[in-house]
Design a protein that fits this description.
CATH superfamily: Decaprenyl diphosphate synthase-like
Low-confidence stretches: none
Number of domains: 1
Largest sheet: 6 strands, parallel
Bound molecules: 3-methylbut-3-enyl trihydrogen diphosphate, magnesium ion
Strand order of the largest sheet: 3-4-2-1-5-6
Number of helices: 8
Distance between the termini: 23 Å
Mean pLDDT: 96
Radius of gyration: 19 Å
CATH architecture: 3-Layer(aba) Sandwich
CATH topology: Undecaprenyl pyrophosphate synthetase
Length: about 260
């Protein structure tokens, strides 16, 4: 096992912002899209590493609601790449006992029908798996997710299903894309950028962030383990006192005991 990793304190949910593909390609005189292709083996090595140490939820940011602003060639490439990847890799993930999920605006008319179908097939095929949950954040934006929850609350209020005075944290959380997904313990961003770029804004309220200069195609399970060692050196307080006698506990986690 990786030196220095405490197997008793492996994060339950690791969320990754896979960034730096374009710069990786540019540095090699390649087209940006070749950087996306080079990111695939990195992701699959990270998936194996996460399985190896017992991470139960892994979330990867594959396309943001803002990424539509890239040039059409790159957007088309990424749409096709996602269809192709699901086709080629779905059975392998299934054989490893991984349950596949997607968060994001999949019904956006800009998302190709074929991709929507592949997403649904992958979710259905793997729905009984429980080794690890793999969540692809595709056409995902944290603000859009929160706005969607607000819209559903408004609809429920108008229909008389909820009283506005009953709108609390749980009412909002239960209207997110995947209500059973535990909050990420650790959010990793590669490529040296120090921002969230609209990732898991609600869910990452108390996540630990680790930023690494490594460009995504150069990332692998060992750099993942390094990030987890860094995470394990942090003291999580969830707003509690620094000199508290008891170790800090995540209130959201206490409330939710039935999730992997
Ligand atoms: C991340 O790499 C992948 C996606 C956003 C789809 P980038 O494409 O953002 O690479 P850089 O940040 O331009 O280097
Ligand atoms: C975030 O990276 C989105 C993904 C990794 C899919 P971006 O490269 O799109 O973010 P910014 O533009 O640098 O903030
Ligand atoms: Mg980027």
């Amino acid at each position: 096992m990786y030196d220095g990793l405490d197997m008793g304190r492996v994060p339950r949910h690791v969320a990754i912002i896979m960034d730096g593909n374009g710069r990786w390609a540019n540095a090699r005189g390649m087209h940006r899209t070749q950087g996306h292709a080079a990111g695939e083996p990195a992701l699959f090595d990270v998936i194996d590493g996460a399985l190896e140490i017992g991470v139960k939820w892994l979330t990867a940011y594959t396309f943001s609601t803002e990424n539509w602003s890239r040039d059409q060639y790159e957007v088309d490439y990424l749409m096709h790449f996602n269809v192709d990847l699901l086709q080629r890799r779905r059975d392998e993930l299934h054989a490893k006992g991984i349950r596949i999920h997607f968060i994001g605006e999949r019904n956006d008319p800009r998302v190709p029908d074929e991709l929507r179908e592949r997403m649904r097939d992958a979710e259905q095929l793997t729905e009984a798996n429980d080794q690890m949950h793999m969540v692809f954040a595709f056409n995902y934006g944290g603000r859009t997710e929160i706005a969607g929850a607000a819209r559903r609350l408004a609809e429920d209020a108008v229909a008389g299903r909820i009283d506005p005075s009953d709108v609390d944290l749980e009412a909002v959380a239960s209207r997110m894309y995947l209500p059973n997904m535990p909050d990420p313990d650790l959010v990793i961003r590669t490529s040296g950028e120090l921002r969230t770029s609209n990732y898991l804004l609600w869910e990452a309220a108390y996540s630990e962030y680790v930023f690494t200069p490594v460009l995504w195609p150069d990332f692998d399970r060992h750099t993942l383990f390094e990030c987890i060692v860094e995470y394990q050196s942090r003291e999580r307080r969830f707003g509690g006192a620094i000199d508290a006698a008891e170790p800090a506990r995540d209130p959201a986690r206490e409330a939710n005991t039935d999730i992997g």
